Amino acid sequence: MQHNHGYLEIEPYTFLLLLGGFVALLAAIVPVVLQKKYLSPPIIYLVLGTIAFFVCSQNNIEPLDHLEEVKHITEFVILIALVNTGLRIKDPFKWNTWKNAVRLLAITMPLTIVAASFLGWWIIGLAPATAMLFGALIAPTDPVLASELQTSEPGQEDRSKSKLGLTAEAGINDGLAFPFTYFAIFAAQKGLDYENWIGEWFLHEFVIKITIGVGIGLLTGWGLYKLIFSLSEKDDKLSRISRGILSVALILLPYTITEYFGGYGFLAVFFAACMFSNYEKHQHHMLDLHDFNEELESFAVAVIFITIGFFIAVNYEILFDVEILAVSLLMVIIVRPATGYIALVKTELNPFQKFVLSFYGMRGIGSLYYLAYALTAAQFAQTEKLIAITTATIFFSVLIHGITARFVQKRIKKYDFNHNNTGS
Predict the structure, then answer these.
(1) Inter-CA distances, 91 with 131, 153, 262, 274, 354, Å
(2) pLDDT for 188-211, tens place per residue?
């Protein structure tokens, strides 16, 4: 047998690195090319993932075989996005910053969970615990993909109440989805007789773990800020501190410490970043941190949505299933806008601002994380249907919100300009 000395051969690991290089190139180019277009990068990645299926392979991807990988990748992307979201929020500890977001968190989120659970059970026929899980994972507004309508970068003035409300909501509700995800897990593990376990759930999964997450987040954020900026100011070393390394510390330290104590690490990371953004003195360095995280986030988003596009191409029939189509479109077009509007009824916001805050929820990387997390924590019935409806809802959310977000962004700028100039 003739040996070819390794020419024109590639090992699987090397092939993955090659793919990673192409994805990194896409992540660098696509957002710039689409900067003034009506398409968002995730839409392009979905299309590219679909094309990749037909070009590269005809092999099926079975999501249930890769839940751990999905969980860890999406978890890391969310952590990066939560730091970015926290750094964006100006005056994070003033009531005026949170007054609209609190309504979305206290009213819209529970109503969305109930509505999604009911639709999943009634139309698709999901088992009760599985339907509850669908409600919990689809309710949060994604801090990753809502970036087109997030408030301005650190140090930049932004008076848009709608964008500020979406940013604040997205920052905190990914952490608040955990208790409701655990509610579904408890129902799957302990049965539907909730009177036997609801007290335990409320005390541990809701009260204690949220308190630990917020408390450790604030404490570690304050400690990191004081440590970095007090030490570096003494001999002007601040400019030499790596924004990348500091960013990783701001993600990993609050998260791991909080997880060790049993709290919700997502909340801790967000509030640690809020503690940084509370100090205006070093806005330039906050912007550096934000920019570095945004670059990491762009790469990870490209990886995830190319993969989702591949999966949709493999299982394209889910988009033609009438029941799945009905529920996913109802969630995006009816349920989230209606529950959002209900929450904002008695506010000073005008109808356009209420529409923006109500309509632009969901999208999906957080939903993928909670899906993978719950399915690795407990046994749920009808997991294939759950994965199908979750994927379809993410697909339509990315498509509808992504295409319309640029138009709405322009309307927001025009409205805010006229509103601020007239002083009304």
Answers:
(1) 38, 13, 28, 9, 22
(2) 999 989 999 999 999 999 999 999
Contacts of residue 45, Cβ cutoff 8 Å, sequence gap at least 6: 26, 30, 301, 302, 304, 305, 306, 308, 309
Return d(Cα 200, Cα 192) in angstroms, integer: 14
Round to whole Å and give the CA distance between 331 and 396. 10
221 with 276: CB under 8 angstroms? yes
**Which residue ranges form the domains of the chain, and what is each CATH number?**
65-291+314-422 (1.20.1530.20)
- Residue 302 half-sphere exposure, CB side, CA atoms within 13 Å? 20
Residues 141 and 170 sit within 8 Å (Cβ to Cβ):
yes
Q: What's the token pair of residue 108? A: 């819209």
Task: Measure CA 363 to chain center.
Answer: 8
- Residue ranges of alpha helices (H) inside 278-382 are 283-314, 322-329, 336-343, 351-359, 365-377
Residues with Cβ < 8 Å from 387, sequence gap 6 or more?
63, 64, 371
Q: Does residue 46 register a pLDDT over 90? A: no
389/362 Cα distance (integer angstroms): 14
